[in-house]
Design goal:
Order of helices and strands of chain A: HHHH
Distance between the termini of chain B: 28 Å
Radius of gyration of chain B: 19 Å
Number of domains of chain B: 2
Strand order of the largest sheet of chain B: 3-2-4-5-1-6-9-8-7
Order of helices and strands of chain B: EHHEHHHEHEHEEHEHHEE
Largest interface: A-B, 12 and 11 residues
CATH architecture of chain A: Orthogonal Bundle
Oligomer: heterodimer
CATH class of chain A: Mainly Alpha
Largest sheet of chain B: 9 strands, mixed
Number of strands of chain B: 9
Shape of chain B: globular
Structural class of chain B: alpha/beta
Number of helices of chain A: 4
Distance between the termini of chain A: 11 Å
Number of domains of chain A: 1
Radius of gyration of chain A: 11 Å
Helix content of chain B: 25-40%
CATH topology of the largest domain in chain B: Peroxisomal Thiolase, Chain A, domain 1
Largest sheet of chain A: none
CATH architecture of the largest domain in chain B: 3-Layer(aba) Sandwich
Number of strands of chain A: 0
CATH superfamily of the largest domain in chain B: Thiolase/Chalcone synthase
Helix content of chain A: 40-55%
Shape of chain A: globular
Strand content of chain B: 15-25%
């Protein structure tokens, strides 16, 4: 899928005003000090993003860690579930 | 035991220049007009990653708190007590609007979390790494007074040595429109603001003392005389009585504006040589009186 569009949606949903889509590497970790440094509230926002923009409900919390590992893993999850 | 505390720092963000002193204040324009806050550079006080979810009221509260704490050299207070009339209005509006737009099917987590009034005190605590006592008073025009009384009780109890008191209110287009319909703006401009004070049980570094305070829903004159009498004073011992109209011409109308009045009293006691000031406040439900005195720092 188009990761540029997904990155724009992430930036808007999380108010990452200082970032542009091209600043985010597809495989860079979204959470933790080595990546974007997102936190648990951002994870909730990403769950809402998936439901609102793609109609996908993340019902199994255990899957969230893998789904939200990077933009690439999110894109794959969307492709598999839409 | 006396209901008393020492003030060791005071700071304000208002429609005046950020962190300016009373002698630099200018009267705000005509009544009914909304005059927004003049904000400082928030990047000096808030990490951009942490600040991205914060509305103006949260950023102001953190910035003014850190400014006051830096004034008295305290990195982390023993307790944080917050007073607000309306809380985080812009986040509440955004949260409710989104909920309606989405057919009440999903919450907007960030706005929901930030919409509660006690978010202000929580965000200050997170920003300072303060794990001490934290409480919030939401009480229309007496939010500052309730929070101040809580500070006095806490210091009197002896469980803490210092307390950060922060007050904040904000105006939004929606709230302004609603209150304007009710014709609430009479003779004064409309604004918003945040104030912070550091109170201590010790006189070290203090420039003013909260000698006593009283809030009453009836017989304000009698309650005032009773408070003065219990401090061995009468009305002739008051050098200056500060009424709401005295400071609202500089800060405008907002629910916790009396905190700006307290800030002005602190400035007068610290820099202008006043000795004993009575800060008078009133709302539709009652009156408040705060008795303050200066400390000679020379």
């Amino acid at each position: 899928m188009d990761t540029l569009k997904l990155k724009t949606q992430i930036i808007d949903a999380l108010n990452l005003e200082e970032l542009k889509p091209e600043d985010i590497n597809d495989d860079a970790p979204l959470f933790g000090p080595d990546g974007l440094g997102l936190d648990s509230i951002d994870a909730l926002e990403l769950i809402v993003l998936l439901e609102k923009n793609y109609g996908i409900k993340l019902t199994d919390p255990a899957k969230a860690k893998g789904v939200f590992a990077s933009v690439a893993t999110m894109a794959s999850f969307i492709e598999e579930n839409k | 035991m006396k209901n008393k505390a020492y003030i060791i720092a005071a700071s304000a963000i208002s429609a005046q220049e950020p962190f300016s002193r009373m002698e630099d204040f200018a009267a705000l324009p005509a009544e009914g007009v909304f005059v927004p806050c003049k904000d400082p550079d928030f990047k000096q006080y808030i990490n951009p990653m942490a600040g991205r979810r914060m509305s103006g009221i949260l950023k102001r509260s953190i910035a003014v708190s850190k400014h006051a704490l830096s004034e008295c050299g305290i990195a982390c207070p023993d307790a944080i007590i917050t007073g607000t009339g309306n809380g985080c209005v812009s986040d509440t509006e955004a949260f409710l609007t989104k909920m309606v737009e989405d057919g009440e099917s999903m919450l907007n987590p960030s706005k929901f979390i930030c919409s509660t009034p006690n978010t202000i005190g929580s965000q200050i605590a997170i920003s300072l790494g303060c794990k001490g006592f934290n409480s919030t008073h939401v009480d229309d025009r007496f939010a500052m007074e309730g929070a101040l009384q809580d500070c006095l009780f806490l210091l009197q109890k002896g469980s803490v040595k210092n307390v950060l008191l922060c007050t904040a209110d904000q105006m939004t287009e929606g709230l302004y429109r609603m209150l304007n319909v009710e014709g609430l703006w009479k003779g004064i401009p409309v604004s918003e603001g945040a104030c912070a004070f550091v109170l201590s049980s010790s006189p070290e570094g203090a420039f003013a003392v909260v000698e006593d305070m009283v809030q009453t829903r009836s017989n304000p004159e009698w309650e005032l005389d009773r408070m003065l009498s219990s401090n061995g004073l009468n009305r002739d011992d008051i050098d200056l009585t500060v009424m709401p109209e005295d400071y609202k011409k500089y800060c405008g109308e907002f629910l916790s504006a009396s905190a700006f009045g307290l800030f002005c009293c602190c400035q007068a006691l610290k820099n202008n040589g006043a000795r004993r000031i009575l800060l008078s406040g009133e709302s539709s439900i009652g009156h408040s009186y705060i008795l303050l005195s200066g400390i000679c720092t020379n």
